[in-house]
Amino acid sequence: MASLYLDEGAELAAVAAGDVVRLGGPEARHAVQVARVRLGERISIGDGRGTVVTGPVLESGQGELAIEVAELVREQPATPALVLVQALAKGDRDELAVQAATELGVDRIVPWAAARSVSRWEGAKAEKGRQRWATIAREASKQSIRAWVPEVAAATPTARLPELLAGTRLLVLEPTAERGLAQLELDERPLALLVGPEGGVATEELARLTAAGAEPVRLGPTVLRTSTAGPAAIALLSARLGRW
Amino acid sequence: MASLYLDEGAELAAVAAGDVVRLGGPEARHAVQVARVRLGERISIGDGRGTVVTGPVLESGQGELAIEVAELVREQPATPALVLVQALAKGDRDELAVQAATELGVDRIVPWAAARSVSRWEGAKAEKGRQRWATIAREASKQSIRAWVPEVAAATPTARLPELLAGTRLLVLEPTAERGLAQLELDERPLALLVGPEGGVATEELARLTAAGAEPVRLGPTVLRTSTAGPAAIALLSARLGRW
């Protein structure tokens, strides 16, 4: 079944069963021209803000689609929230992490300008980078038919993470940490997983983070790539928090 | 610290502390010429069969390396074993799964010629494909400094999986399954995770597998890409089996 999203900002919060929902823009054009969605076919439309409606296509043409709302699902955001603080990394390793973590259910993503991040988002690149990650998160949400698209924050340096994530328990993935994420006692606080770049978290950076209350934790006995660590941690925590 | 592997087939089983281990071939050449390993520097050499030796470099030159064994670690294979049966998939999605699952500790990998696998390994391509996955598993083991490199089987069609994996509990990842992997009761049997291609496991294929004793299980509430599902399942099971 095809699954589409409304344009960013548009919401389905006020829609009720039996209503007709219209979709325009590139999403609808793609559905009509590439995915060849047909009259009468059942499709899902989400707003990425908790609501997904499903129903048959009533009109389709010239890049417009209308469906009748036969089914309506509203989801509350999951609690406690899971945040991925992913260091900017070489190649597409950071983007792979964003994609997989979104499929696995992460709630919020913070691009982390870490001490050893080789890739830098500066000046005009900063907003472009954020938008690119937001698009990846949106596409991955669609692929996995998620009701909520994770929000992507602006790139944040180490010194500003504790303030940005006030009230959230900060866990720094660090292969040499004594405590394992699998054994960690969890409570009601939202959790943020900090995943360093390929070169790891720098010594002074780790000291600064722990001084601000962050806890170093290990994920298994091996050293993981930056694209593997975050998604694996999200999988483990989703199971431990009873989301799965 | 640099980490190298002996050529495939060579073993460190008979080595003792104080011995000198010599390494030749492309691995040693790469260490000397690219990674610029120096005399006196501590490096690790593994055989991928459970033994890793660590010690200072005694000789280095012309693509040869010798180290003195200062430290010697022998690891038993983990039990119960975790097997990833990964469907051949489009793009590099199957290879990404092999890479991440190896970092996370998978013990054996079976390339699965599934009903909906678009990619096919036939004729001369079959052994080439297997070798490519074996190389990816070896490189990923090195990256994560694993004592054991997972073995990669030949590509296997659905009908032959139950025989190949006799004595192993078969779990088919299927988004519509009622039982979740997170809730599954585990015992001493080795576990094989079957991950279908992008189009999923075909209906008749699933019926055939369940008739042979395989159990459909779900991983979370969303639909996952083939590159995400296997690594996430390995992470979850590693934690549940007390490996992490």
TrEMBL record, chains A, B:
One of its GO terms (molecular function) is rRNA (uridine-N3-)-methyltransferase activity. It is an enzyme of class 2 (transferase). Keywords: Cytoplasm, Methyltransferase, rRNA processing, S-adenosyl-L-methionine, Transferase. Its main location: cytoplasm. One of its GO terms (biological process) is rRNA base methylation. Residues 23-58 form the Ribosomal RNA small subunit methyltransferase E PUA-like domain. It catalyses: uridine(1498) in 16S rRNA + S-adenosyl-L-methionine = N(3)-methyluridine(1498) in 16S rRNA + S-adenosyl-L-homocysteine + H(+). It comes from the Bacteria. CDD domains: RsmE-like (cd18084). The keyword Glycosyltransferase does not apply. It is found in: Cytoplasm. One of its GO terms (cellular component) is cytoplasm. Its EC number is 2.1.1.193. Belongs to the RNA methyltransferase RsmE family. Specifically methylates the N3 position of the uracil ring of uridine 1498 (m3U1498) in 16S rRNA. Acts on the fully assembled 30S ribosomal subunit. This is Ribosomal RNA small subunit methyltransferase E. It comes from Agromyces mediolanus (Corynebacterium mediolanum). The lineage of its organism: Bacteria, Bacillati, Actinomycetota, Actinomycetes, Micrococcales.
